[in-house]
Amino acid sequence: MAYRARDGTNSLARHIRSCKNESSISSSNSSNQNQVTDYFSSSKTSIIPKKIKDRVKIARVEFIALDSRPFETVSGEGFMKLAQSLFDAGKYFSPTSTVNLKDSIPSPVTVSRNVEDLYKKKQSELAKLCINIMYYCIICDFWTERYTGLSYCGLALRYITNDYRINNFILGCFLYDIQTQSASNVFDDIGVVLNNNYLSYFTAIDKELLEEVCKFLELFEEVINKLSQEERLTIYMVIPLRQLLINHCEPQFEDTAELKELKVFLGNRIKSAWIPQEQHYICTLLHPSLKHFHAAPNEKNKALKIIRKELLSRTSNVISATGKSSTAVARGVTNTVDNVENSVNNLLTRCFDKVTPEIRPVQLPLKELDEYMISTKTISETDDILLFWKNQEEQYPTLSTIVRELF
């Protein structure tokens, strides 16, 4: 910008017009330019305003009340996925746009038609998965629906991935024809039980003895619930909890004669009918806080014998695989020394002793077991045992493999 007396303020006017043109061009370019957020989403979680949270809370309450749904519905995995998909769909519309939600939600008929397609898709994925996994277990469970009283048989497939995670797949849930002890099934027998002949039996029951028996059976219920957990592994609990019940059935001096008789019967029944398998012994020993079998001392030698037999069957494969890897390491080090450049600065280096590759001693499976047994590492009851073995995989490779196969 140059100023001359004869131009007056014309130069300033031209400058203003020029600045306006440049600003309009830059603004148009900036509006059309892609931002980094168009390609990458932020890793930070956005803070939801309290006003929005309150509106969502009210909507969830209205959903449960108006549609008569259980409270657990709004915390289910399927509901969360539905809410997230609706939230993601709302990102594509501006706050001023008017969108009818019915246009984006399919009708019940459409949903019912797609259930079969989704089932076939998941069935195909599961079939491909089963081809690749080496070890898995099929879980069979019988349960009764609390409202209808109908009994079902459920089948589930469980396996542990290479990164030590539990995967569960429901294979099916089938109606099981078994007579349940629900009100509809026992109603006809009430009249027979409560007649004069049986009523005398009820009046003769010793209430103190009944309370004593109920208190004694509380531990059985706790053990059943513990072994029935679905989200945690339970195979290593079988032997310790079994022994806990056997010890619980030992008659005490202060017990009544009736309770002593019940304890002896249940203790013998547990020993004869509840027989642990070899997998139970191995898995108990592979729990760092149960490996010494303090809860069941008589079972330790049997567990060690079983796991040594299992480890010996794997020894030949481990030795052959380790021998190949040692050769590869030696070649790599030799090539590094031979490739030193021939220059004046490297003359002495060329005369150095050749580096001998460091060959780590082969970690034989039985040595793994010995080191594991003398290790003082333990975990608590709430710790993840799979995470423990994931961290110990390098030190105990064979034992870690057994954990993935059997747990």
UniProtKB/TrEMBL annotation:
One CC-aspect GO term: nucleus
Domain of life: Eukaryota
GO molecular function: zinc ion binding
Cell compartments where the protein resides: Nucleus
Keyword annotations of the record: Metal-binding, Nucleus, Zinc, Zinc-finger
InterPro entries: RNaseH-like_sf, ZnF_BED_domain_contain
Protein name (record): HAT C-terminal dimerisation domain-containing protein
Native organism: Rotaria magnacalcarata
